[in-house]
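cron nightly-structures :: item 1 of 1
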Amino acid sequence: MSESKYKGGLWARLFGAFNESEEAPAQQEPPVAEPAPVAHPVASVAVAIAELAPIAHPVALSASVAVAEPATVAEAAPPVEEAPTLVETPQPCQACGAPRKDLLAYCHDCGWLFPAAGAAAPLAASSALTSRENPMTAITNGRLQNRYELGDLVGERQGVARYRGVDHSSGLGVVIVAAPLAAPALPVAEAAPVAGADDIVPGFDEDLPAALALGGPDAWPSIAWERNLLERADHPSLPKVLDQFTENDKEYLVLEYPLGISLWDAWDDPEHGAATRYRWLQFVAGCLEALHNAGAIFEGIRPDVIVVGESGPRITDISDVLPIPLPAGAPIKATLYTAPELIVSPTAADTRSDLYSFGAMLYSLEYLHHPLEAKDFERPYTPLQITERFPDVHPLFLRLINKTFCRDLHTRFPTDELTKTDQSGFQELIKTLGVCGKAFDEVRLDIAAWTTTGMVRTGNEDALTVLHGVDTRLDELTEYAMVLLCDGMGGYDAGEVAAALTINEMRKYLLDQPIFAALTGKEGPTDAVDPKKYQEVLRDALKHANREVYTAARTPGKGKRGMGCTAECVYIDSRNVIAGHVGDSRVYHLHRGRLVQLTRDQTLVNRLVELGQLTAEEAEDHPRKNELQQAIGGQPDVVPGLYAGKLMRGDWVLVCSDGLTNHISNKELETMLTREAANSAEEAARRLLNLVNLRGATDNATIVVVRAS
């Protein structure tokens, strides 16, 4: 089969270059009695998928397919030699105004389908009109109903045109659908015969045959059909019908134009978490399901036809809604969001075709962050696999894409167990989107803990415990950790004993609390974490440990009088970091590239800095720098500091003793975690302790690093 010369159509613009030097093949005269058949009939979708042509070798259709205005049954087709006359005075595209090229069925620039012979005449009068010159002005002589002003033409499908407009009674934008009154019935195109095993489905570069519309006042496409569809679907995402009337031998339907932020912009707003974004997608999927129940599908749902307002996502343009089952010869725009079966085997299309389009939209939003382009496909209808660029992509997202945005409709949702109850697959899609929305906001925890005696001390008086748990129920996975760190006070007797006793008492107290039952292997609460409640529990754990150490230090015969330590008690889950603190050990949170010290040093020198009596530089070398105002075991009671923050993907949490911060500044910590791109918590922890030892390590140093991935 020869390669097509048409390198300039919508598909050719995406997958090839127009070759000006090649000559057009001689156009064949279309048959008189029936529409011209496609040169290579399309097989069923199962055969079509197996036979898809690679991008580098597009398949050419016969010249008869490119004729956009075939002769009617009563008239003979114009002779071939008359074609140059049509080229000299080409019919303009009603969508973008570009001249029609070589009698192609689709616009060379934007892919708009030219009306077939016998279809209603387009409402736009001339390609020379600017966006300010209303093409309907000459027809309506002013505002429709003395109320509606027509604006730009935004789309046309076989005589049914759509315009942006203004309702001057409310001052709001509207969509005005216009069609000739009592349009004549048109012949129905014959279904394409089944292809043989050797036939190849069209590639991205090929032009598709013009289709014929169905006749009848309520048939698609018509205003009556569209209004009935919107009333049957009755979904809040769809535009509402505002008015319907006839004027100047034309019928008009006025629809609201929903207000809101483009889905592109709303999706990339960092204030919206995954739970919110995927709730929007659930709403859109519910809208598509409502259309299915009303007998229609959406050929190409795309981010640019959706806005997000106060009431959620709204669809602004429903011109791509098609009846299902698809009428023979229905015109298909064939964008990169269109399911392959709608193009290669329309009779095989069903509601699962919307799954492909929906998956393409999600692929654009979450993975590409730009509209689909030809380079995003491995071959026609097969997107580049996400794992080639992101091998560690979230498995739930990979499954979602591979169960929607795939060329074989039998591979899409629903899975085997749900085919009997939900053949459209949209119930399973909506459920999966809910699981993804929750899971994508929950980060995974990469944890490493290290300690060093240092270069001066003989023994290590620091102590730590990390409790880390992961639970999964069905598709829901939760992860959490408890970090306990104590620094025995070297100037006191038995600092290591105080640190170990504090760790044991805090752990025992916390694991007895219902909210931490999961850390003991028991079933914990399923409610969302309340930071204030968790802070209260951490505070009580620190106060309990303080009483136990204070009592033990003053018990006769123990010989440990005066022992004490600092203490950090930190709870981390997939969304939160909550800390309780006594002393001068520290908890840091690197959030969106900025390091924040969550805890406040409870020392005399730090208090003088807070009061303005010392500068931070003077405090670094002050002789009473390590003198604590509070410590575990020093007094009968303590007042712990309490802190909370939100954890996001890419954040870091560091819990450390002052043996580390005495040698590494906050600025250096931030730089090491951001600019030096530590690949894991383990790598970061080792680098930090090695740097401490290189700088002399005058005290024990202990660190726990948590990376949110």
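cron nightly-structures :: done
The longest strand covers residues 476-488.
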